[in-house]
């Protein structure tokens, strides 16, 4: 050990053990290596690499690939950033293609926030929360109140807030779907709380099984866990599945029975190819109407984000959560917690407002908005199916038909020789497969172990965002060679 | 208790006790009430109020008042938001007043981030971190490495990250200056770690007293606290004081002796009226040069932000911290922790880049940049002194000469009758005074108890950001009436 190692205040063994326990594979070692390759290629030093482009298929990050932002949103945003432009309406309209509704929206947003450089209220600017409430009402047919809307620094920040308030003790448990987007398990680890995993059923298009949820709950209770909440990602990540109405009702009934907060992560609500998105809010209100008294005590937190859908504005960090049925004193603690970090990024708040209140039929910007929106949707669907078809050609690979979100999560079969080699290299078999894929093709995906999977199964998650079919061909070829090498 | 109360999963008594313990007065009850008044006035329902405008003098939020953003930054930002505008350079230049360096910078930033709607690397886009490293080198005369720079969602997020990693156990302690910006105590409460307060010396222009630090440390150690870090806000908040070189060296010597991480919150480094800002980084490197071996093991984390200074872009949530001397394994855990929340807002990252790399002499945008920068600085200084002069007229009020930051933190004397009335209303005397001030004048400040103060002293913190002198006149009159009422 060097002399400074001995003398430093901090070393690996004495820092927060809960931070150490947290795992977040989406941006882990594989992603870091892919960025190293990317930097190498950018500097022209990639001659020894067997590929000349790195494809980030690990993160749902559409605009890092070729997805264009929605023109209306960015035109408005440019005016929010530089309000001086509003003194040149004629130039905007006649020379730069801005329509009158762009200018109108920018003026309105500036009236609501004053400046995108000023902190807003911690819960988000009131007028913008009103737009969110109206969106929810239009979507579900039931009202929403601005006071129950909390704009957030992406939905991730909303999840962080909710778990912070809920997780009171080391034996507090939150039910988490497996596979899951690892924000949940990572945050529970940081909070030194318990993850109560419930497995989704791959054979039922990754549906929720109430039997599975109930048995997971009972096992946890038997272990002394105080189960306080159930997280459910709908449409699913990494699975893409949209839950049918009966699954949603079953979860709500279980939550009512066991007094669990329902955390409904609905950020993919507009990425639906098969089936229909039903919000937990609507399902809850329907149940409350059909069976008065039985569901009135349920606490539901529903999250949404500008990062996904056709909006794809990940880098803006905009999202919200709606609190339904929460005790006002608890809501006050939630408010206090978020106020410590002041407020969510104001431009992100404005993108949320535009996401929930986009150009409508009859608005000057509507035709282009619709064309772009539909174009992105159709493009995503096309790529999803192209990748699905490619997977069909791959030996030992099984994939559910694309249902939505931005991901496919195929099952892979790793030959015993490869499993051995993986062990030699100190890696899980699916990790090993993914590292090989990156090293051979430049394509970065995420091993299934990063999301959780049933014992004995292996998967990887890939986005279908990257353009063209050349890269999918690389995967097909890699897989062929891999299976040949280890047969 | 209602039937739903009994049945809900969450209530005040069973949620996270550490969140409940956290206090953050800057956005507390007083601020909430001021927002209620603001909303009332906006709706035209304020006839019963004895004022017709609410002045938010509680939060360092310049652009919520009348401070204009720096034109160069917002022109570039408008192009980052809507890159389509770059296809119309002639219009930008000839009709909209954009200079060529604005266009150049926007093109460069877009090359570095690809899109402000795409997630960047979790540590922030590499090219932008290079700009920060170069700024640090220019400022201090010592090099900085991009790999040690972490862009963050405001400096607040950086503090949150560092404390999360450092606070390993309930008896971990972090030394915090009193008075302090309450992010530190609030975050330590959430982490269930210990605050080790050390009092700043009001009689010495709020300087740090090594005697005080040492005695606070020893008291904590005697109580079983594992003191791991010392936070120091320089220039100070709420005090505005710039630490002289000998104070900074004394803190570093103490940290070296006791093996403490130094967390240097330097967000007000450009808000300096009296004295000179010396960065902890420079002071550390100087010491390492002068006394080889003695200071090599020190870990220093220095934070900066776009929210303060002349930039004032609070709503953009942009900041960074530089890690000096950290164990690479510890840095890896810091990286993992921040990756869970994906990345800082990309536009905020770009504002950081422009803050550290603004137009230079000879650049086309420089004259206006300089004019705006100096104008804001002089305006702030003028307002600070105007407020200071107003305080001189107030009975029992003593205020240190404005030194910097955006705040004044005067001592107030509350007459015994008022202290009694405060007790009757269940409030601290300084809180009581501030509530009365808000109710009578519409001016929202923050009571000294929100920042911590020596026993038996009372203060309030006000910003000097609001324009004009009418509002300061309201405070003077209120104070006169208050002292009369309770004499």
Features:
homodimer, alpha/beta, three-stranded antiparallel β-sheet, 18 helices, 11% strand, globular, PyrdxlP-dep_Trfase_small (chains A, B)
CATH level-1 class of the largest domain in chain A:
Alpha Beta
CATH superfamily of the largest domain in chain A: Type I PLP-dependent aspartate aminotransferase-like (Major domain)
In the predicted model, the low-confidence regions of chain A spanning at least 5 consecutive residues are none
Total domains of chain A: 3
Strand order in space, largest sheet of chain A: 2-8-7-6-5-3-4
Structural shape of chain A? globular
Any idea what the CATH architecture of the largest domain in chain A is? 3-Layer(aba) Sandwich
Proportion of strand residues of chain A:
5-15%
Strand elements of chain A, count: 12
Tell me the radius of gyration of chain A.
23 Å
The overall pLDDT of chain A, averaged over residues, is: 94
Order of helices and strands of chain A: HHHEHHHHEHEHEHEHEHEEHHHEHHEEEH
Main beta-sheet annotation of chain A: 7 strands, mixed
Number of helices of chain A: 18
User: Structural class given helices, strands, pairing of chain A?
Assistant: alpha/beta
As an assembly, this protein is homodimer
Helical content band of chain A: 40-55%
């Amino acid at each position: 050990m060097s002399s400074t190692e001995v003398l430093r205040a901090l070393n690996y063994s004495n820092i927060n053990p809960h931070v150490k326990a947290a795992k977040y594979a989406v941006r882990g070692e594989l992603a870091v290596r892919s960025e190293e390759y990317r930097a190498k290629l950018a500097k022209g030093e990639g001659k020894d690499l067997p590929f000349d482009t790195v494809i980030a298929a690990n993160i749902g990050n559409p605009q890092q690939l070729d997805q264009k932002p929605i023109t209306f949103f960015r035109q408005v945003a440019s005016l929010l950033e530089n309000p001086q432009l509003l003194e040149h309406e004629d130039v905007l309209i006649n020379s730069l293609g801005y329509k009158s509704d762009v200018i109108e929206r920018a003026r309105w947003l500036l009236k609501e926030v004053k400046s995108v450089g000023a902190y807003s209220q911690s819960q988000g600017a009131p007028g913008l929360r009103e737009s969110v409430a109206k969106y929810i009402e239009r979507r579900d047919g039931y009202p929403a109140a601005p006071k129950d809307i909390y704009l957030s620094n992406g939905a991730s920040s909303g999840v962080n807030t909710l778990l912070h308030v809920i997780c009171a003790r080391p034996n507090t448990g939150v039910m988490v779907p497996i596979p899951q987007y690892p924000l949940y398990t990572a945050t529970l680890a940081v909070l030194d709380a318990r993850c109560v995993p419930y497995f989704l059923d791959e054979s039922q298009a990754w549906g929720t099984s109430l039997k599975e949820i109930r048995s997971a709950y009972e096992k946890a209770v038997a272990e002394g866990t105080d189960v306080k909440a159930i997280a459910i990602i709908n449409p699913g990540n990494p699975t893409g599945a949209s839950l049918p109405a009966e699954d949603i009702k079953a979860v709500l009934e279980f939550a009512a029975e066991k007094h669990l907060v329902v955390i409904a992560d609905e950020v993919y609500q507009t990425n639906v190819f098969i089936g229909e998105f039903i919000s937990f809010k609507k399902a809850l209100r329907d149940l409350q109407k059909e069976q008065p008294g039985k569901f009135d005590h349920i606490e539901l937190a529903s999250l949404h984000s500008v990062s996904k859908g056709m909006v794809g504005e990940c880098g803006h960090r905009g999202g919200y959560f709606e609190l339904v049925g929460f005790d006002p004193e608890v809501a006050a603690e939630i408010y206090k917690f978020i106020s410590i970090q002041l407020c969510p990024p104001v431009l992100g708040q404005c993108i949320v407002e535009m996401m929930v209140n986009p150009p409508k039929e009859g608005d000057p910007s509507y035709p282009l908005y619709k064309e772009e929106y539909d174009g992105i949707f159709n493009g995503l669907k096309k790529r999803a199916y192209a990748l699905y078809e490619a997977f069909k050609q791959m030996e030992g690979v099984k994939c559910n038909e694309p249902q939505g979100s931005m991901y496919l999560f195929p099952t892979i079969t790793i030959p015993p020789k490869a499993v051995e080699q993986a062990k030699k290299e100190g890696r899980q078999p699916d990790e090993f497969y993914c590292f090989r894929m990156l090293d051979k093709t430049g394509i970065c995906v995420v091993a299934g172990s990063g999301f959780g999977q049933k014992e004995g199964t292996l998967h990887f998650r890939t986005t279908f965002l990257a353009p063209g079919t050349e890269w999918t061909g690389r995967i097909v070829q890699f897989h062929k060679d891999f299976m040949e090498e280890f047969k």
